[in-house]
Specification:
- This protein is an alpha/beta fold.
- It is 35% helix and 19% strand.
- It has 2 domains: 247 residues, Aldehyde Dehydrogenase, Chain A, domain 1, CATH 3.40.605; 192 residues, 3-Layer(aba) Sandwich (Aldehyde Dehydrogenase, Chain A, domain 2).
- It has 15 helices and 22 strands.
- The protein has a 7-stranded mixed β-sheet, sandwiched between helices. It has a 5-stranded parallel β-sheet with strand order 10-9-8-11-12, sandwiched between helices.
- Homotetramer.
């Protein structure tokens, strides 16, 4: 486990930029617990790391894909062997309940188990030619150098969604994790390096967001970045998309969400309440797939709201190593942001779910709270009566807050589900297959759950969003291979002469004037 030590960027396995401003990564459940001191690198660190990766990538791309798959297999076994230690570090550094952190680490193992076989399945195709003695082929080739910028709410699982397929496909990677997840990132990187990865193929840079953007701009200008992967806010994703577009690159953007859950008259209400509790308040609502707005049919509204209100009030919040629904917010910056969101609650809203609103303190207590009051703990909030023009309805809140509104007809529910412009995840609770499929056909979200929560990804399904949630790129499963490879075609003419496509092609002369005689009619 990484203890309270100084962390530096590592380029080609060597400490780099060891002088500079310091960031203190602290335990959000007990901020007096210093997890790591992190030396933040300047913008030139990104460019230098990309140049190093560019050199290393040329040889890495020549390693046979099945051998690269063996390194992925090694990583999976190393993560599995270090599962408890890595999960404990994640919980300590970002406040995620330990069972969720264990699940996050398992996500890395699942990702490795899926992609280790893709080293033997980076299939191209043999394509028939329109001319004799000529053969056509297609190949997947590495993109080159990938710069990956990740958030800290899933400090190891989401990075694995980028790193594992990118490395498998023959790319070199420069990884810039969130500062507040530096220790978790360093621990995961240590496991990747020890899986057998050559020097310089994975480089780790600690930097602020502004310096990262400046460094990325320089690296793109210098031509040493071929692909950018970003997980984070929609606002930052827009800036990265614009920057990459100026260099004719399409980044892989996985952004925020305002994920709807529709509760129909034919829903199992107990199941729907359980799903809303988990997807709305798990990880303290700090998932891109967290439940944003409950859209409940007017016939079951009162009963559903009463049940959910009781469950949320009864839920235990506190120390993330204990048996709790959720722990603290990620750090003081996220606490400040959530305080601003709470300011969006208006007079026409009804607030439910807890004995208070805002940070849990001695003066603003939460019944059953089991944590240290110095931590960044916040009351869960159900905001009933939101309108489609409310900021709470339209914006991602990224905290333990769920909005609630009602509908009468399915068309109205679908319209409300699409109204925010986000398009990541969605959910519907119903026992009617027709309702489920109509919702699936018309909802703008890239991911749809039926009788399940808005949260929860599996390593072999495409993950990503539309609209304000992303640019249509997908992670996980075979679909992510299109992010980290480019198609290359080759034609091989063994006729011994120049055959010109579309010109030297054999013609067939049909008799298109023929009609069946009457005796056949």
């Amino acid at each position: 486990m990484i203890n309270t030590t100084e962390l530096y960027s590592l380029i080609a396995g060597q400490p780099a930029f060891t002088e500079g401003p310091e960031y203190e990564s602290r335990n959000p459940a007990r901020p007096s617990d210093l997890v790591a001191r992190v030396r933040l690198a300047p913008p030139e660190a990104i460019e230098q790391a990309c140049r190093t990766a560019k050199t290393a990538q040329a040889d890495w791309a020549l390693v046979p894909a099945p051998v690269r798959g063996r390194i992925v297999a090694n990583l999976g076994r190393l993560v599995e062997a270090n599962k408890e230690a890595l999960a404990a570090l994640v919980t300590r550094e970002n406040g995620k309940p330990l069972p969720e952190a264990l699940g996050e680490v398992q996500e890395i193992v699942d990702t490795c188990d899926f992609f280790l076989g893709e080293g033997r399945r980076l299939y191209g195709q043999t394509v028939p030619s329109e001319m004799p003695d000529k053969q056509l082929f297609t190949f997947r080739v590495p993109v080159g150098v990938t710069t990956v910028i990740t958030a800290g709410n899933f400090p190891v699982a989401v990075p694995s969604w980028y790193l594992v397929p990118a490395l498998l496909c023959g790319n070199a990677v420069v990884w810039k994790p969130a500062e507040y997840a530096s220790a978790s990132a360093r621990a995961f990187a240590e496991l990747v390096w020890r899986a057998g990865l050559p020097s310089g193929v994975l480089n780790l840079v600690f930097a602020t967001g502004d310096d990262t953007f400046e460094g990325l701009s320089r690296a793109l200008e210098a031509g040493v970045v071929d692909k950018v992967g970003f997980t984070g806010s929609t606002a930052v994703g827009e800036r990265i998309g614009e920057l990459c577009g100026r260099h004719l690159q399409t980044p892989c953007l996985e952004l925020g969400g305002k994920n709807p859950m529709v509760v129909t008259p034919r829903a199992d209400l107990d199941l729907a309440v359980e799903g809303a509790l988990f997807s709305g308040f798990g990880t303290a609502g700090q998932r891109c797939t967290s439940l944003g707005t409950l859209i409940v049919h007017e016939d079951v509204r009162d009963e559903f709201v009463d049940r959910l209100d009781k469950e949320v009030n009864a839920a235990v919040i506190g120390e993330p190593t204990g048996d709790v629904l959720y722990g603290p917010l990620l750090n003081d910056r996220f606490a400040e942001s959530f305080e601003s969101v709470l300011g969006w609650i208006d007079e026409h809203h009804t607030v439910r779910g807890s004995t208070g609103i805002g940070r849990i303190t001695e003066d603003n207590p939460r019944a059953g709270f089991q944590g240290d009051l110095s931590g960044f703990y916040y009351h869960p909030v159900i905001v009933d009566g939101v309108r489609r023009t409310d900021r709470l309805f339209l914006e991602e809140t990224f905290g333990p807050l769920v909005c609630l509104t009602t509908y009468r007809e399915l068309d109205e529910a679908i319209d409300l589900a699409n109204a925010s412009g986000y398009g990541l995840s969605s959910s519907i609770y119903t026992s009617d297959p027709a309702t489920a499929f109509r919702f699936r056909q018309r909802v703008g979200a890239a991911m749809v759950s039926v009788n399940n929560s808005t949260s929860g990804a599996e390593a072999h399904l495409p993950f990503g969003g539309n609209g304000r949630s992303g640019n249509g790129s997908r992670q996980s499963g075979v679909w992510v291979l299109d992010q980290f490879t480019r198609w290359q075609s080759m034609n091989w003419d063994f006729s011994g002469k120049l055959q010109k496509a579309q010109l030297d092609v054999a013609t067939v002369e049909p008799d298109l004037s023929y009609r069946l005689p009457d005796r056949f009619v």
